[in-house]
Specification:
The protein is an all-beta fold. It has 2 helices and 22 strands. The termini are far apart.
Length: 342
């Protein structure tokens, strides 16, 4: 008896790379000539975020860098003034269950550091340094506090919107000065926390790109909802009858609740907070540097590859050549040192 293996093994690629010179000018084409072949070839140029040495990831220390915060605001409708403020905390415990839990933290009002214009149309706050707020690198939380005063006396609440929320800092990566994003609007993790979520909930909404803050509805005794003769309370209303032309499959007959003039929730003073997730200001994980795949399995043999560098400097270009099967992978890595002159 004899045993056999059904695994499909591959050989390491017979692959080499060369150039006619190791020195080229900015904007001049660099031709990398190949000998041998491989199923797949990937290229790391050695430029910023295209460095083979950082293929497994890159973590950058923020250190003593200036941390800049910027966002845009827009407001519409209503007449109430001074509803919106911006606060920061380094001791919030992350409990978003109720507003009392949020307010038990120490919050610093930083509204006056930013340009927040009380007019329609998104306006940038301009980037401002908030490094002084950080204690031992964070974490730090941000909150947009929105206040609704009684609307009979103070006018209707306004709709404030925040977008383009961005926290960044300047640093040097691979010899280049760059601005690194710490968080943006999508990754900010804002959550709505209301002072009266059951009795006077706000109409605030959070999406991936925007925080929209709008106060609770003022209960008007003249609202048709408080009229017991309102057709929506009539069980014989044809919108509830599947056989009627007026039938609305989404209509649900509400329970009549009379207006209570003594209710403290008719026109209350409420607060709505949009609180961010924690932001670590010790370091930033930029993830792995990615190569450019210049040859896939389905492509024909390549004899050369041309690339142009637009910034002077010292670079090491890497080519990763790989042969693959369903059971096996073998690769070789080739590099070329280059000097790019102005």
């Amino acid at each position: 008896m004899a045993s056999c293996s059904t695994e499909i093994e591959v050989d390491a690629p017979d692959f080499q790379v060369s150039t006619t010179s190791n020195t080229f000018q900015v904007g001049e084409e660099v031709t990398f000539s190949f000998t041998g072949d491989a199923d797949m070839i990937s290229f790391y140029s050695g430029e910023l975020y295209r460095n083979y040495e950082n293929r497994d990831g890159r973590v950058v220390n923020i250190g003593n860098s200036d941390v800049l915060l910027e966002f845009s605001t827009d407001v519409s409708g209503g007449t109430q003034e001074d509803q919106l403020s911006l606060l920061a905390s380094t001791d919030f415990n992350g409990n978003y269950d109720d507003l009392q839990s949020v307010k038990s933290a120490t919050w610093v009002d930083i509204t006056d550091r930013f340009k927040i214009i009380d007019s329609t149309g998104f306006v940038s706050s301009t980037a401002q340094d908030i490094s002084d707020l950080v204690q031992n690198g964070g974490p730090i939380y941000f909150a947009f506090k929105y206040e609704t005063r009684p609307q009979v006396e103070n006018g209707f609440a306004r709709n404030w919107m925040i977008q383009n929320f961005n926290l960044s800092y300047a640093t040097t990566i691979d010899g280049q000065e760059v601005n690194v994003n710490i968080i943006d609007q999508i990754n900010s993790g804002f959550r709505i926390v209301d002072s009266e979520p059951e009795n006077a909930p706000s109409r605030s909404v959070i999406t991936n790109t925007r925080v929209s803050l709008l106060g609770n509805i003022y209960r008007d005794p003249n609202d048709p909802i408080y009229d017991p003769n309102n057709p929506i309370f009539d069980p014989n209303n044809p919108i509830y009858d599947p056989t009627a032309l007026e039938y609305d499959p989404l209509a649900v007959r509400p329970e009549y609740v009379p207006y209570n003039p003594d209710s403290p929730y008719n026109d209350p003073h409420t607060e709505t907070w949009a609180v961010s997730g924690p932001v670590d200001l010790n370091e930033t994980d930029l993830g792995p540097d990615r190569p450019r795949v210049i040859k896939a399995i389905r492509n024909t043999r390549m004899d050369d590859y041309t690339y142009t560098y637009n910034t002077p400097g010292q670079y090491t270009a890497y080519f990763v050549a790989r042969n693959t099967s369903i059971d096996d992978v073998k690769e070789v890595v080739r590099s070329v040192n280059l000097t790019i002159t102005p």
